[in-house]
Structure formats: structure tokens, C-alpha cells
Amino acid sequence: MTQTLEAVRAVAERACAAPTNAFGYGIWTHHIVFVVSFGRELSLVLGADAEIVELAALLHDYAGIKDVRLEPEHHRHGTDEARRLLGALNYPPERTEWVAACILTHRASRGLEPETLEARCVASADGMAHIAQVPSLLRLAYVEKGLSVGAGAAWVAAKLRRSYGKLCPEAKGIIEARYHAALETLETA
After folding, report:
1. Which of 45, 62, 124, 178 has its CA 20 to 30 A from that of 172?
2. Residue 1 CB contacts under 8 Å (≥ 6 apart), including other chains
3. CA end-to-end distance (rounded Å), the chain
4. Mean of the per-residue pLDDT values for the chain?
């Protein structure tokens, strides 16, 4: 692991552990770690730059974690945070912009299409992490949002459908069985 990756990993995990993080440390253990892992896997499958993918995966939700008020547009604010952080680490500006582009386009619901292999890896890894970590989405639906059993199951199922819809074909092949199993369970609620 490069020094830049080590430093960014430490910053991202510290932000997740901070008492100001409205999502709790679980966003690290049950989301970011999975986005990084799936991102690495996809970078190998697609031949993408693994370092760019991992940096973007570590920082893709960073702005909203640091300040929950930024969450609705965290993909946009996250580009500024990545530029600031990577600039302070003397990371090459052209590679920093590559990371920023991955962060900007990681959300399928915002209509910004990932244009590079690396951006496709990050967007797909984010969706795969949602599918792989249904319990964290259930917690969000029932504890944070206070939804009823049926409404919470419907909310999570809709989130999974959106997440699956943004996956590249290779990611769908990796996570498809888990996706269908999760939907089948949620649709019986």
C-alpha cells in the first residue's frame, strides 16, 4: 500500500470514528470497507487503475461523513474534499482529478454517468456494498428513518434496485445471487 493510500485510509477511518459522524462507525465497517474491497476486485477484472479506485472508494462518502449537512450533495462536496486532502499529501494533480471524477459520478440517482473504468469500478462497488450489507440498510430504514416494517422493507428494496441498476455487467455477475436473495426476502415483508 502506498503512503498516500495509508494516509487517506487513516483519515477516512478517523472521520468514521468521530463522534460528529451522524452515521456511526458502521459506515466504515459495513460500507466503506466493502466498497474498497469490491472496488479492488473490479479493478482487477476490468483492468482499471487500482490505486485510483481505492482512493476514490475510501473518499466517496467522506464529505457527508465529515458533515451530515453535506450528505444530500456529498458526491459534489466530496470532490473538493478529495482535492484538498490529496493536495495536502502532494498527490499528483492529474491523478487527483481522476479520483475526484470517480467520487462525483458514484451515485446513480444523480444522473452523472461514470465515464472511466475507474469511475465504473467505484460506482459499481458502492452499489455492490449496499447489496452485500442489507442489514446496515435495514438499520437505516428502521432505526434512523423510523419506518414501519413494510415501509422499511420497501425502502430497502428500492435502494437495492437502484444500486443494482447502476452496476456494470461484471459487477452484476459477481453480486447477482445475493441481490435476488435479498429482494426475495424483502418482498415477503
Report:
1. 62
2. 9
3. 43
4. 93
Mean pLDDT of 172-180: 97
| CA 83 from centroid of its chain's CA atoms | 18
Letter string b/e over residues 40-54, b meaning 16 or more CB atoms within 10 A of that residue's CB: bbbbebbebbbbbbb
Give dist(CA 60, CA 105) in Å, integer: 9
Could you tell me the domains of the chain? 3-186 (1.10.3210.10)
Q: DSSP 3-state assignment of 98?
A: helix
CB-based contact 99:56 (threshold 8 Å) = yes
Cell readout for 22 is 451522524
Percent of the chain at pLDDT above 70? Answer: 98
State pLDDT tens for residues 6-33.
Answer: 999 999 999 999 999 988 999 999 999 9
pLDDT tens, residue by residue, 127-171: 999 999 999 999 989 998 999 999 999 999 999 999 999 899 999
Long-range residue pairs from 43-49, CB within 8 A, at least 24 positions apart, any chain? 43/117, 43/118, 43/121, 45/170, 46/117, 46/120, 46/121, 46/168, 46/170, 47/117, 48/116, 48/117, 48/118, 48/120, 48/121, 49/98, 49/117, 49/118
Residue type, 72: P
Mean local confidence (pLDDT), 86-94: 97
Q: Which residue matches cell numbers 456511526?
A: 24
